[in-house]
Amino acid sequence: MNTQWLKSAIKAVTPPILVTFINHLRSQTRQPEWEYIPAGWRAATKDAAIKGWAQKSVLDAYISRWQTFLDELNGTQPFGISPEITNQSRVNLAFHNVIMSYAYALSVAAAGKSRLSMLDWGGGIGHYYLISKTLRADLKFDYTCKDFALFTQYGQNLFPEAKFVSGNEWKRQSYDFVLASSSLQYSEVWRTTFRELAQVTTGYLFITRLPVIHHRPSYVMVQRPYRYGYNTEYLGWCLNRQEILESAKQGELTLIREFIVENAPYIHNAPEQCDYWGFLFQKRSSANGS
Mean pLDDT, 10 residues at a time, over the chain (290 residues)? Predict the structure, then answer.
């Protein structure tokens, strides 16, 4: 029997609330993968294990799975593709939802265009460049990726026709479409980053795979992603939805659509559990036709 298929089938029919409970039980027996950090971002100065994203083990994991990622983009199978983790089943509903939600946002941003200037903030080695070209083969992309130098140097070699930056060059340009997928929450000064993303957007801003809560103030958590081959830990925000919308208003953005993109992990000791959401915003000047 194909055990991977059996695991996928069981997961597909298991209610999300039961998955959360199972993850909670697992977290009681070992150091949890996700955990609430009351000390906030100060914890990074006191815990040597919290080394952040810019680690060679993360890049090595991307490289080791790159060919599988390329293979999964081809053909007619479902878009159940993780941009970073390709040892998942192609029938993964969460990742299918992530990609299809992105496809909607991309198509809205590209309406009436044959060429799209795009910023992928926190885009790693360029996974979304290929995803975008696969979803919309009719479009030409002027693609810019902003991330740590460790990733952008590798990405630039993969895609010499695109632009990869690790500094602040991206702030001196404007873009039809700005994407921040599973990245804004890792900015300690997320409000500042949000404002900067809004400033360079002339059309649409899509922030997705964002841990969102509704009742408590934003708080900090840690992820210990060792099971993915990442020899590091990193802090991130669980962001209050209203705080996000207030920042959008200050950035002169209009909310177009919200998305629930994937099930949340269980965060040990958290004051409120999150869901992963996406938000598609339009620049008001663009909406007014100016």
Answer: 47 54 48 96 95 95 90 82 64 86 98 98 97 96 98 98 97 98 98 98 97 98 94 97 98 97 92 97 76
| Cα–Cα distance measured from residue 268 to residue 242, given in angstroms and rounded to the nearest whole number | 23
Q: Strand, helix or coil at 26?
A: helix
Question: Which parts of 17-82 are beta strand (E)?
Answer: 34-36
3-state secondary structure of 122: coil
Give domain status of residue 10, yes or no. Answer: no
**CA separation, residue 166 to residues 152, 189, 197 (Å):** 7, 17, 15
Compute the distance between CA of residue 48 and CA of residue 137 in angstroms, rounded to an integer: 45
Q: How many CA atoms lie within 13 A of 226 on its CB side?
A: 7
DSSP state of 75: S
Our count of domains for the chain comes to 1
DSSP one-letter string for 101-117 = HHHHHHHHHHTT-SEEE
Distances (CA, A) of 104 to 25, 114, 209: 36, 16, 15
Burial of 188-221, coded b for 16+ CB within 10 Å and e otherwise, reads eebbebbebbbebbbbbbbbbbbbbbeeeebbbb
Length of the chain: 290
* Alpha carbon distance 3, 18 (integer Å): 21
Confidence (pTM): 0.87
CATH number at residue 108: 3.40.50.150
- List the domain range (segments joined by +) for residue 150: 34-125+139-287
